[in-house]
C-alpha cells in the first residue's frame, strides 16, 4: 500500500543555488571553515571545533590511527573504529595521541637477534626506513641502537645477518631526554645534521622519535587540530554494549571525543550509554577547588607515591553537587601545557640575558618563589631543561610580600630609576 507524504519534498535536485554579490574581500584567505564538533550553548564557545568540516566514518576499512593523524594534520577529526577489542582500539588512540605533533611512537622495532630479513619485511610492511633496536623488540623497550637504510646493503649482505652486526649502537647515537620539547629536539637535529632523534626516559627506554620531516610537516600544516597539550585531536567510536569498560579505556588513552556507532539513535541502549558517561565524567570544579588540588597533589613529574584527593564540583548533566577522586598522575597531564609555556619563556629570557649576567646565573642559579614554585618537581624539571641549578626560597608564598615590605621601609635608600618619582612621593605621603 502506498503512503503519500504531505510535507514539502527536499530532494537534492529541487535545490537551486543562486550566487550572490562577490566583493574584493571574497578570497580564500578570508574564509574560515571552522566548525563546531560538539553541542554548545548559544553565546558560548564549543569545547571542540574543527578547522575544516570533515570527519571520517567509524569503519574498520576507513578510520585507523594513521588516518586519525593525517586528518588532524589538515584540521579535521577521525573517529577510530570500535569494531575491535577494547585494548586494540585504545592502543590506536594512544598511538595517534602520541604523535604530539612531532613526537612519534616507533612502529618498527626489532631485537639485536633479529636479521636483515626482518628489517626488510618491516620496511615493506610499514614503509619506515628507521627501525628501533630495543631489548625486547617493543616500542618502549630499552634502546640499544637503530637501523637505517645507511646501515646495510641488500646486494652485499646475507638476509640472515644479525641486526647486532650492522646496527648503529646506542653509544654512537645522539638522544634526547623525555622532557625535551619539540623546539629543543629540532635544534638538536639541525645542530648535529640528523634525520631523526630518539627520545628516551631516565631508564634508557625508548619513548618517541622526532623526525626532521615530521617537524617540517608540522610547520607546513597551519590548520592542524591540536589539544591543549599540542597533541592531535582524536575521536573514537563506542557501542552500546561494553561502554562501561570501553569508555574509561579510551579516555585514559587520550580520546578527545566519542561517538556512539549505531544504526539508529532512538533506543534505550543509547540513553543508557549517555547516562553512564555523564554520571562518570561530566563534572566542573571551581577555582578554589583547583587551587586546593594544585597544593595537595599537584606535580609536574611522577611522585614516588601516587596521591589522591577528593574534590567537590558541579555535575554538568543535572547541575547538582558531585564529588570525584583525582590522582596526582592525572594532574601531571593537566600541567603539561602550562609547563611547556613556562620552559619556553625561561629559555627565551636566557637567550636574551646579557653576557655580564650569565656568570651570576651560573653562580647563584635560578631562584623560585610564589605558590607555583611549590608544585612537586617544578624546580627539578626547570633544572633539567636549562642545566642551571634551581632552588625554591624559604616561605615561597610570602617572600614577595616580605620583600615589598622591606622596600617600603627603605624608600630613601632606593636608587633613582628603581621607582617612579611620583609614585615614590605618594608612598611617602
Description:
This protein has 429 residues and is of the alpha/beta class. Among the domains are: 52-101 and 224-281, no CATH class; 103-183 and 194-210, CBS-domain, CATH 3.10.580. 35% of the residues lie in helices and 15% in strands. The chain contains 13 helices and 18 strands. Strands 4-11-10-9 form a 4-stranded mixed β-sheet. A 4-stranded mixed β-sheet has the order 5-6-7-8. Strands 3-12-13 form a 3-stranded parallel β-sheet. Strand 12, helix 6 and strand 13 (257-260) form a beta-alpha-beta unit. Helix 9 crosses helix 11 (378-386). The longest helix has 25 residues, at 328-352. The N and C termini lie far apart (96 Å). The mean pLDDT is 82.
Strand and helix map with partners:
Blueprint (H helix, E strand, L loop, with lengths): L34 E2 L12 E2 L14 H10 L4 E2 L5 H13 L4 E2 L4 E2 L5 H11 L4 E4 L8 E5 L20 E2 L6 E2 L4 H10 L4 E5 L5 E6 H9 L14 E4 L4 H11 L3 E4 L7 H14 L1 E2 L2 H11 L10 E8 L5 E7 H25 L2 H10 L1 E3 L9 H9 L3 E3 L6 H11 L11 H8 L1
Parallel strand pairs: 3-12, 5-6, 9-10, 12-13, 17-18
Antiparallel strand pairs: 1-2, 4-11, 6-7, 7-8, 10-11, 14-15, 15-16
Helix pairs in contact: 1-2, 2-6, 9-11
